[in-house]
Amino acid sequence: RMLNIRRLVPSACRLEASLSRPSRSTTIIFPRSATVPRDVVSTRPLSLSATVWKKQKEIIDRDAEEEDDDGLPQDYKKKTLKVGSRRLDTFVAKSAGVPSSQAEKLVLSGRVRVNDEKTSKKAYNVQQGDAVDIWQEVCEDNADFAYAIRTEVKSYDVTNTGYDIHVHSWKRFLVDNWR
Fold this sequence. Notes:
GO molecular function: RNA binding
Mean pLDDT: 76
Pfam family, one: S4
Strand order of the largest sheet: 3-8-7-6-4-5
Domain RNA-binding S4: 86-144
Protein name: RNA-binding S4 domain-containing protein
Order of helices and strands: EHEHEHHEEEEE
Helix content: 10-25%
Largest sheet: 6 strands, antiparallel
Shape: flat
Keywords: RNA-binding
Number of helices: 4
Radius of gyration: 26 Å
Oligomer: single chain
Number of strands: 8
Distance between the termini: 71 Å
């Protein structure tokens, strides 16, 4: 016997069922011998208030972010960098807060890595998923490590004035000393 799930949810479980937001066509198949108590059957369809839905969506979004756990420290800042191009030197200038001439020197002198590889190509276009490290200084406790500004590109949007690059940024990120 096929019964509509909206009519079978007990009142105590109504909120939990409504949060999972089953479609109108969702059905549950019960064996012929199954009986459903009268107080369980509801003729009123489940509805979800906008407030409850927003709260549930926030929980789902938070859980999705936690699933993205890639082992990196969670003390990053989410930023949107507004740049004219995706070139590495422009990106470094904006993410490190330095003038473009100094950013160009950082790239050409080997103080910038993209995805754990040294690069001296200032015209490289950063892509979604790239991790850019800008070398700052050697770690005082261990010379095998250094502090860097790490910026991970999460996504970017093309705008009329250039690009809005959405990033996660760390100001003092501990990396291996590549210099």
